[in-house]
């Protein structure tokens, strides 16, 4: 039987096959980092690797992967951050990715990060990983949280019971990380010999495993843990069988003797457990009991006041009476702080960038450059970039840290809990609430966040509907229109009125999201909502410095970079359309007049519709393009005050209905270029990208048409 694992299927060869995102051949050792969600695994990863990181996707899957390097005592270590999972039974894409990397990637060691405040639950994953590989180091993180809650973990005894090194850490403060590095060095070099504890199963199951164990050893050559693989084969784990074929080119079904022995073992089990579907429950039960017994021996708790406080907070923040109002209040406060806080830095940034524009103009004049070159490069491309950066950067730099603060505190899982019922009614996934919240900052970031949804169907629904919540690029338009036409003379409370108006837009966006999600789940993406485990992690004191760094580098600059990449070509197109004339009219004016009958039916006008079309690269430039069109200028500009802008709009035939319809269309129209680019990257499908374009656009057209025609029929469409 010439079957087994080749050299190319193990070690670095397997790693490159499973994880081809530049693993870094200069690394001496490759370390896998595994753990449950909300254990501080990412904090451990960031603390060890610093800024020496790279993030991408697992091949063929929309699951985020990250790797980072660190040097220690003359060796370079590559740390691969696996997706956070609760088990390795491959019930989700994340579990499959983590299991395949540990099993077939054959890293030199695997660090499992656990939460010291809830060790028993985390030990389930530890025991499963120890069944696959013996090169395991247990990192008991959040020891500082455990001390605050009067929880004591006997790390030495835990290490003896598990047969592996155990290190206590508080990664946010750096406690224990040097010891973790030293322990890893000793494990990969062989100085520490690990003897992982194996889970003992029911006698009948152990006998069934023993029947096929010799044949399994012959198939694998001992390079994959024989007992673990035998269990998975008896359980008929199809995901694992597919992985065996993909990564090690092994198909046990090709061996007739093995098939006969496996069938015999399954018959014996079927007679004992009545139904092989109960087999996995039996396996899980044994693992859970083992974890419980170990936890009872090493964990003591002398004060329940902290957990009692968590329960009291959850009783308020997730209650039916207060949960939703508190959620809306916190989001409203976040929007208000973003609106108020972004004004001054946005003005400073705009002044600086446009001062640079003056210098560029002076430079081109000194060179004697033709006016059209200056127009394309400066008043076209550069000015568009300047508007996008000055309008996008300050709100994102405020919103993302505030959002990350709520995330770090542990509040966002409570948001998902509060909205889970409504998303289930819409036949979609409760985690969509989190991706929707990310869309408030930037829809492109919200699309990326859809990776946390396991089901491909529900992930697509979340992707297609994410644009219904307004991003910070649409905030300026919503705020300006609300302040000019809806807030009346409330100048003193302008920011508060604007925040309330934005909250009304948010409620409308959430309602539309639920309605369209329900419609999609009953038509092109038909199916039932999947079950998922929603963990409510303990509340934690946020680490402000790390939040700022993480939100700026991981979110703000990442999204801004994509926006800048599409804004520059847009500036070129806008300038050309505004300056190339056919007869006495520019191409921009001709297009606006052509669109005017259709736009009028929607309560808009041709110039507004053209502004949205030209604002495709970035929603931030819609208002500047509209002002430029009304003033017949050849370059984008902005007026000095809202009152000047209001008067300009009134002079061009605006009424309250025009403002309302523009707000509705701003909420419901095609995603910006950055978001569509991200959708294409995430779905790898032109079809779903096109659907993501058409669904919100059709919704906006229908809403605006109904509102405009209803107002005209009722005779209330005037000033």
List the helices and strands and how they pair.
Blueprint lengths: L10 H8 L10 E7 L5 H9 L3 E5 L6 E9 L2 E7 L11 H12 L4 E7 L3 H14 L3 E6 L1 H6 L2 E3 L1 H8 L3 E3 L8 H13 L13 H18 L5 H9 L3 H10 L8 H18 L5 H20 E3 L3 H13 L5 H45 L3 H39 L2 H14 L6 H10 L1 H7 L6 H10 L9 H12 L7 H28 L22 H36 L1 E2 L2 E2 H15 L4 H9 L7 H9 L11 H10 L4 H12 L5 H11 L2 H28 L6
Parallel strand pairs: 1-4, 1-5, 5-6, 6-8
Antiparallel strand pairs: 2-3, 3-4, 7-9, 10-11
Q: What does this protein structure show overall?
A:
This protein is of the alpha/beta class. It has 3 domains: 8-189, P-loop containing nucleotide triphosphate hydrolases (Rossmann fold, 3-Layer(aba) Sandwich), CATH 3.40.50; 203-301, Helix Hairpins (Orthogonal Bundle), CATH 1.10.287.1770; 324-713, no CATH class. Helices cover 63% and strands 8% of the residues. The chain is built from 29 helices and 11 strands. It has helices spanning 11-18, 41-49, 93-104, 119-132, 143-148, 155-162, 177-189, 203-220, 226-234, 238-247, 256-273, 279-298, 305-317, 323-367, 371-409, 412-425, 432-441, 443-449, 456-465, 475-486, 494-521, 544-579, 587-601, 606-614, 622-630, 642-651, 656-667, 673-683, 686-713, and strands spanning 29-35, 53-57, 64-72, 75-81, 109-115, 136-141, 151-153, 166-168, 299-301, 581-582, 585-586. The strands form 3 sheets. It has a 7-stranded mixed β-sheet with strand order 2-3-4-1-5-6-8, with helices on both faces. Strand 10 (581-582) and strand 11 form a beta hairpin.
**Uncertain residue segments:** 1-24
| DSSP summary, beta strand count | 11
Helix count, per DSSP?
Answer: 29
Secondary structure category: alpha/beta
The N- and C-terminal alpha carbons lie at a distance of 86 Å
* Biggest β-sheet: strands ordered side by side in the sheet: 2-3-4-1-5-6-8
**CA-based gyration radius:** 29 Å
Arithmetic mean pLDDT: 80
| Quaternary organisation | single chain
Q: How would you sum up the major sheet?
A: 7 strands, mixed
Give the proportion of residues in helices.
55-70%
- What is the global morphology? elongated
Summed up, the domain count is: 3
Q: Give the DSSP E fraction (strand runs of 2 or more residues).
A: 5-15%
């Amino acid at each position: 039987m010439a079957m087994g694992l080749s050299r190319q299927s193990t070690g670095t060869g397997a790693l490159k096959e499973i994880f081809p995102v530049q693993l870094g051949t200069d690394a001496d050792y490759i370390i896998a980092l595994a753990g449950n969600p909300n254990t501080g695994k990412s904090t451990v990863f960031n603390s060890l690797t610093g800024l020496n990181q790279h993030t991408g996707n697992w091949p063929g899957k929309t699951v985020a992967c990250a790797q980072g390097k660190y040097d220690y005592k003359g060796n370079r270590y590559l740390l691969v951050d696996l997706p956070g999972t609760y088990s390795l039974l491959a019930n989700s894409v994340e579990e499959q990715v983590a299991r395949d990397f540990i099993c077939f990637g054959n890293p030199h060691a695997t660090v499992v990060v656990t939460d010291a405040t809830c060790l028993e639950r985390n030990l389930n994953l530890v025991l499963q990983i120890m069944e696959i590989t013996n090169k395991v180091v247990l990192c008991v993180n959040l020891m500082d949280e455990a001390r605050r809650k009067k929880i004591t973990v006997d790390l030495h005894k835990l290490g003896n019971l598990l047969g592996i090194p155990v290190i206590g850490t508080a990664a946010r403060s750096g406690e224990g990380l040097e010891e973790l590095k030293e322990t890893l060095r000793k494990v990969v070099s062989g100085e520490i010999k690990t003897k992982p504890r194996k889970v003992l199963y029911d006698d009948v199951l152990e006998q069934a495993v023993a029947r096929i164990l010799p044949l399994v050893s012959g198939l694998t050559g001992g390079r994959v843990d024989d007992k673990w693989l035998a269990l998975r084969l008896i359980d008929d784990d199809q995901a694992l069988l597919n992985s065996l074929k993909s990564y090690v080119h092994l198909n046990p079904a090709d061996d007739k003797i093995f098939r006969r022995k496996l069938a015999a073992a399954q018959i014996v089990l079927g007679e004992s457990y009545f139904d092989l579907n109960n087999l996995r429950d039996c396996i899980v039960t044994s693992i859970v009991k083992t974890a419980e017994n170990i936890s009872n021996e090493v964990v003591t708790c002398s004060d329940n006041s902290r957990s009692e406080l968590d329960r009291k907070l959850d009783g308020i923040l997730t209650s039916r009476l207060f949960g939703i109002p508190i959620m809306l209040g916190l989001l409203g406060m976040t929007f208000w702080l973003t609106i108020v806080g972004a004004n001054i830095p946005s003005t400073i940034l705009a002044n600086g960038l446009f001062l640079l524009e003056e210098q560029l103009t002076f430079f081109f004049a000194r060179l004697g450059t033709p006016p059209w070159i200056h127009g394309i490069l400066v008043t076209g491309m550069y000015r568009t970039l300047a508007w996008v950066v000055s309008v996008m950067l300050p709100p994102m730099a405020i919103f993302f840290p505030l959002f990350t603060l709520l995330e770090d505190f542990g509040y966002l899982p409570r948001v998902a809990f509060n909205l889970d019922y409504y998303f289930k009614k819409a036949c979609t996934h409760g985690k969509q609430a989190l991706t929707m919240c990310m869309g408030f900052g930037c829809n492109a970031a919200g699309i990326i966040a859809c990776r946390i949804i396991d089901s491909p169907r529900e992930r697509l629904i979340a992707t297609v509907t994410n644009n219904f919540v307004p991003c910070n690029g649409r905030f300026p338009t919503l705020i300006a229109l609300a302040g000019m036409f809806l807030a009346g003379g409330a100048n003193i409370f302008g920011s508060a009125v604007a925040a309330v108006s934005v909250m009304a837009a948010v409620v409308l966006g959430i309602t539309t999201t639920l309605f369209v999600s329900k419609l999609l789940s009953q038509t092109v993406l038909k199916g039932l909502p999947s079950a998922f485990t929603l963990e409510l992690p303990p509340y934690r004191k946020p680490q402000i410095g790390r939040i700022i760094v993480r939100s700026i580098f991981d979110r703000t600059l990442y999204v801004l970079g994509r926006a800048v990449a599409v804004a520059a070509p847009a500036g070129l197109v806008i300038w050309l359309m505004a300056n190339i004339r056919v007869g006495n009219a520019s191409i921009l004016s001709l297009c606006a007049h052509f669109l005017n009958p259709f736009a009028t039916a929607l309560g808009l006008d041709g110039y507004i519709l053209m502004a949205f079309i030209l604002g495709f690269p970035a929603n931030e430039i819609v208002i500047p393009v509209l002002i430029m069109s009304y003033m017949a200028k050849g370059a984008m500009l902005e007026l000095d005050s809202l009152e000047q802008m209001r008067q300009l709009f009134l002079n061009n035939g605006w009424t309250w209905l025009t403002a309302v319809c523009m707000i509705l269309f701003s909420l419901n129209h095609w995603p910006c270029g950055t978001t569509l680019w991200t959708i294409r990257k995430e779905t790898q499908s032109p079809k779903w990208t096109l659907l993501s374009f058409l669904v919100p656009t059709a919704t906006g057209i229908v809403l605006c048409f109904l509102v405009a025609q209803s107002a005209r029929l009722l005779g209330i469409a005037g000033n």
